[in-house]
Design goal:
Length: about 280
């Protein structure tokens, strides 16, 4: 049951990060037990708050993904505490295991990161190196492939020069294109950075293997769903494809199956992508 009708008029909401453009929101509360009656507002904070609620409500009604959303409430795509660090972790995790990426990055941080002291228990000893630290660093020494090290250095240099602005509010297609201009960053990686780091609500890495496996299972197809087919299917989930991706990754990682209530076998790639390992 939908307890609130939310009408949102946006300027190209599927393309704008953050506040989704200039938004006018009017929420009609029908008297049920629903805590999101914010009324008419143009304040960015309540608009974004209601947009998050609207996103999940809308996905529940969308084809294919709706059953997954209804069976797994409360899932969202994690963001980024440090935008540069998360971007580097995403790039480092391309096409290798999460364990291998974590070990290589751990060695890199121990060598290039700034040592810190905290009163907190545990192993927090270093700050992640900044873009200027990595732009010229010999990253191949830390167990990364030559191509991966080159990609990270070029990405760091682009952040230093301002060619890549991780704090910018801009069009999704433009940001993805700029990221793809860096050798070694494909469409999937660029879209994952856009979704997690830049909070682009419609970013969608259609070539991601975990997403393709999840949709193949949902459709019951005997053949693996291709990236182009997944891109086509995802058009029905606009402008909330990043949230749809989070639900699909969790479905592949062993969350509740919408049809039978059973649990799928855990897929490490999908599970760690959502958790932020890569």
């Amino acid at each position: 049951t939908i307890h609130s009708l939310v009408i949102i008029i946006c300027t190209k909401p599927q393309h704008i990060f953050g506040g989704e453009g200039v938004s006018f929101l009017f929420s009609f509360f029908n008297g049920c037990d629903f805590p999101y009656n914010l009324g008419l507002t143009m304040s960015p904070l309540p608009v974004n708050h209601v947009l998050r609620v609207h996103r999940v409500i809308a996905l529940k009604l969308m084809p294919l993904i709706g059953a997954v959303v209804r069976a797994n409430p409360g899932i969202r795509l994690p963001g980024a505490w440090d935008r540069f660090e998360t971007s580097v972790r995403i790039i480092a995790g391309q096409r290798i295991s999460p364990d291998a990426a974590s070990k290589a990055l751990g060695r890199m941080v121990e060598r290039l990161g700034r040592v810190i002291e905290t009163p907190l228990p545990g192993s927090l000893r270093y700050l992640f190196p900044g873009a200027a630290d990595l732009a010229e660093a010999p990253l191949g020494e830390f167990g990364m492939s030559l191509s991966r090290a080159t990609t990270i250095r070029q990405f760091a240099a682009a952040v230093v020069s301002g060619e890549i602005d991780l704090a910018a509010v801009t069009f999704l297609e433009k940001t993805v294109a700029r990221l793809e201009n860096i050798a070694g960053i494909d469409s999937g990686t660029a879209n994952l950075i856009a979704a997690r780091v830049l909070r682009a609500p419609d970013a969608f890495p259609a070539c991601d293997p975990g997403l393709r496996r999840a949709v193949t299972s949902l459709t019951g197809s005997p053949f693996a769903v291709s990236a182009s087919k997944l891109e086509q299917l995802s058009q029905a989930w606009r402008p909330f494809r990043a949230t749809a991706a989070a639900f699909l990754w969790m479905a592949a990682a062993g969350s509740r199956c919408p049809d039978t209530g059973s649990h799928n076998r855990t897929t490490r790639h999908a599970k760690n992508t959502v958790a932020g390992v890569n």
